[in-house]
Design brief:
Layout lengths: L2 H14 L3 H11 L2 H4 L3 H25 L3 E4 L2 H16 L8 E5 L6 E3 L4 E5 H6 L3 H16 L2 H21 L5 H15 L4 H18 L4 H12 L7 H4 L4 H14 L1 H4 L21 E2 L2
Parallel strand pairs: 2-4
Antiparallel strand pairs: 1-2, 1-5, 3-4
Helix pairs in contact: 1-9, 2-4, 2-9, 5-7, 5-10, 7-10, 7-11, 8-9, 10-13, 11-13
């Protein structure tokens, strides 16, 4: 195990050792896949409980870093857009969806299990218009709709079942290793190209339902290409083949003119966003 991984484990240990999530995840890892899918009703209920508990652990992890922004004029920009998008997406997800601002030097957004979508304050400085912001939020709530983070966890658990023995030699419990590694994995947003592309298309549907021009995500890909490496949103940086995603979105728009035909592809039709430099924030403690 790398020195970086060991540092990650040590840093997260105090936050998670007493969490109920640890026991839950350890049980999931220990059980054979056949046992986890024995009864569909029980499995669905357990999966929902696990997703909720994992989401709570991610929230506490972010909160402990004093990164969650409790109040700021930035919410005056974010909330009107996010409220409409949540209203459109909520019927497709069984837990309450919430959009929260967090502080980061890099523009980014990520959807955690349990319904929280974390948006960095720097993203509001990065997007040029309301449609690009809406496109980002719609993309992220689509990860919730498809339970992509939980699928990612299942894949990671299968890998860790093979690697867990070596990690335990470092003196940490199986549950500690699982929880810390999975939270780190969630925040890195290591989704596959297919998963990201699906979130693009579902996100376009959500945006249209919420009344926002789904071309905003296409425009955001263009902004990504123009940005310097350190200023690029991470959810775009993982998959640099933006033209493929743009082509897929344009094909999706063309396939349903009844839904998408009313929206203009011209960026001049967008609603600009202006964020004052160094807008004050108050952190949740």
């Amino acid at each position: 195990m790398s020195a970086q991984a060991i540092r990650l484990l040590r840093r997260g240990l105090d936050l998670l050792t007493r969490s109920l999530l640890l026991t839950t995840l350890a049980a999931i890892a220990a059980a054979p896949p056949s046992a986890r899918s024995a009864t569909s009703t029980d499995s669905e209920s357990e999966a929902q409980d696990t997703e909720k508990e994992l989401g709570a652990a991610v929230y506490e992890n972010v909160k402990s870093q004093r990164a969650i922004i409790e109040s700021s004029p930035l919410y005056d920009i974010l909330t009107p857009v996010s409220s409409n998008i949540v209203r459109a997406a909520q019927p497709r997800y069984y837990l309450p969806i919430k959009v929260l601002l967090v502080h980061s030097a890099q523009p980014n957004a990520f959807a955690a299990p349990g319904g929280n979508v974390f948006v960095t304050d720097e993203l509001l400085y990065f997007v040029k218009n309301r449609e690009e912001l809406a496109g980002t939020l719609c993309h992220e709530v689509s990860h919730l709709i498809h339970h992509d983070s939980m699928t990612l966890i299942e894949k990671q658990l299968r890998v860790m079942r093979r690697e867990l023995g070596a990690a335990i030699l470092l003196g940490h419990s199986a549950a500690d290793i699982l929880a810390i590694t999975l939270i780190g994995k969630l925040q890195s947003l290591s989704y596959s190209r297919d998963v990201e592309s699906r979130a693009d298309l579902t996100g376009a549907d959500v945006c249209a339902s919420a009344g926002y021009n789904p071309w905003g995500l296409v425009w955001l890909f263009g902004a990504f290409g123009d940005a310097q490496a350190g200023q690029r949103p991470e959810f775009l940086s993982d998959h640099p083949d933006n033209q493929t995603r743009i082509d897929a979105l344009m094909q999706h728009f063309a396939s349903d003119p009844g839904r998408f035909g009313r929206f203009s592809s011209e960026q001049s039709s967008a609603s600009p966003i202006t964020v004052p430099a160094k807008t004050p924030v108050i952190f949740l403690r």
